[in-house]
Specification:
529 residues, alpha/beta, Rossmann fold, Alpha-Beta Plaits, 6-stranded mixed sheet, 4-stranded parallel sheet, 20 helices, 39% helix, globular
């Protein structure tokens, strides 16, 4: 008897396992039932991203199903289990999009009437596709729970079978077939990263894989903006979680399913949450490296590897489930920009420059000297309170990486421009560097009453440094590009000292007042959280 057989023998005699709403036998039957209706998707190795993440990284491409997501597996299984009379009456479901697509597609194939209720925030692409597959589409509510309440009401009124997209036992069993394929394709896998929305997929995959490969680690990944499974673990049962807009719209389920939670809690090893920044970066990496379009919720499993949230996976064989590729083109454009900013390749900052002829040309020439490219620039004349011949410009600049962006800011500072970084993509800092930056800023605040220095705090050659110069002891004054006068004569408007916050401190350029004891500090962005 091998380990898998021994584990299944043990489970069959475990009262908790027997009481589960879905067991391994259901998964095996589902795999046989849907074998001719869904694709057996490939699981490929990524050399480039393996090097970046430090793992032996594989991608399970379930976004290549007919309707662009894994949801077909459960939808087809549930439809094939309907009684003949119910197949004539029809089915109804509430879905943010992917379950609706899978149900509509296979209902059309099988000749079963289908109605779907989608929240008003559902992507246009998914709404349009459902209608093309012949489904009756209703848009109702701001989230999936409000859509579900409406769908349940309509179903009762019309005799339609309600098929929950993540909690129906047949849905969980169908989704679990992905786990069977992963075990077959990467038999010595160490860890599988699975997205969590309503928890149906991770419940099924963890059940299937733990039965066949007991030592495999199953880690769930959910957006920090809608951490419903984390909330359920804290409460010990499914409970409503705060749900904010997220790039992983398909995972925006405020409350996980009770059946799914019951199964997943027994087999899932760990759950992590990731920020919007790293979801966007994961989408960007798939586009650039894998030449693959995957939606935020579909690629969220890659995000904790990019953020190095799971250092214990270094050197391990890891599979990331790519669960959906249905993303609006308009949304994709915004996600790319956010991903570039997160990657240190888009930098936004404010700078005061001369309003005299040639002032802007000189400023952009200074930027060009570093090899950076200006993507967007905006002039502001009305709200700058220094002098009438100075204007403020807000720049969005394309850089090669975070180090290039840091070099650009350093170069502008050396040229005499006083940079106010409203928002920056300089987030490629280690935690130690961020902590050191915070210490440097606290030190600057203490010096504010005694020092009239011009200080730059930033990352130089991989480490945090403070570079200071005192105008009173310089052999030759630095010429300011503002008005062609010494930099020490440029007036700086005193601003209130910013309060310390627990969020990581970004690298900032801090020009202290040469006129008195007040200290100027720019506003700090928390986009790296």
């Amino acid at each position: 008897m091998n380990k898998s057989e021994a584990n299944m023998h043990y489970m069959r005699n475990d009262p908790e396992y027997i009481a589960l709403p879905v067991v391994f036998e259901d998964v095996g039957m589902a795999a046989f039932r849907i074998r001719n209706g869904v694709k057996k998707t490939e699981c490929t190795y990524s050399d480039t991203l393996s090097q970046e993440t430090g793992c032996n990284l594989y991608f399970k491409h379930d976004h290549k199903q007919h309707t662009g997501s894994f949801k077909e597996r459960g939808a087809l299984n549930a439809l094939l289990l309907l009684e003949e009379g119910q197949k004539k009456t029809g089915v109804i479901a509430a879905s943010a999009g992917n379950h609706a697509l899978g149900l509509a597609y296979h209902s059309q194939r099988l000749g079963i009437p289908c109605t779907v209720v989608m929240p008003s925030t559902a992507p246009i692409t998914k709404i349009t596709k459902c209608r093309e597959f012949g489904a009756t589409v209703h848009l109702h509510g701001e989230n999936i729970l409000e859509a579900k309440e409406f769908a349940t009401k309509v179903g009762l009124e019309n005799g339609l079978e309600y098929i929950n997209g993540f909690d129906h036992p047949a849905i969980i069993a169908g989704a679990a077939t992905m786990g069977l394929e992963i075990v077959e394709q990467v038999p010595d896998v160490d860890c599988v990263l699975v997205p969590i929305g309503g928890a149906g997929l991770i419940a099924g995959v963890s059940l299937a894989m733990k039965m066949l490969h007991p030592k495999v680690q199953i880690i769930g990944v959910e957006p920090v903006n809608c951490a419903s499974f984390t909330k359920a673990l804290q409460e010990g049962k499914p409970a409503p979680a705060e749900c904010k807009p997220t790039l992983a719209d398909g995972l925006a389920v405020p409350t996980v399913g009770s059946n799914a939670f019951q199964v997943a809690r027994k087999f899932v090893d760990k759950v992590v949450t990731v920020s919007e920044r790293f979801i966007a970066l994961a989408v960007l990496r798939m586009l650039e490296v894998e030449k693959t379009v995957v939606e935020g919720g579909g690629v969220i499993g890659l995000a904790p590897l990019l953020s190095h949230t799971l250092p214990e996976l270094k050197g391990k064989k890891v599979v990331v489930c790519l669960c959906g590729g249905n993303i609006d083109i308009t949304v994709l454009g915004r996600v790319i920009d956010r991903g570039l900013a997160a990657d240190g390749r888009l930098l936004q900052f404010d700078a005061p420059i001369s309003d005299r002829p040639g002032g802007l040309a000189e400023f952009t020439k200074t930027i060009a000297e570093t090899g950076a490219s200006v993507k967007d620039i905006h002039h502001e004349r009305a709200f700058l309170v220094t002098d009438m011949m100075t204007i403020n410009v807000r720049c969005v600049v394309e850089t090669k990486n975070a180090k290039h962006a840091q070099d650009l800011l350093q170069h502008l500072n050396n040229a005499g421009y006083l940079i106010n970084m409203e928002q920056t993509s300089l987030q490629a800092l280690t935690k130690n560097q961020q902590a050191e930056l915070q210490k440097q800023q606290q030190l600057l605040l203490k010096r504010a009453d005694t020092s009239h220095t011009h200080t730059v705090v930033g990352v130089v050659d991989g480490s945090v440094k403070a570079i200071e110069s005192n105008p009173s002891v310089k052999s030759s004054p630095v010429t300011s590009p503002l008005m062609g006068v010494p930099a020490s004569a440029v007036p700086v408007t005193p601003q209130p000292v910013a309060q310390a916050t627990p969020t990581p401190i970004q690298p900032v350029v801090t020009p202290q007042s040469f006129q008195g004891k007040a200290t100027y500090l720019p506003r700090l962005s928390d986009v790296c959280s």
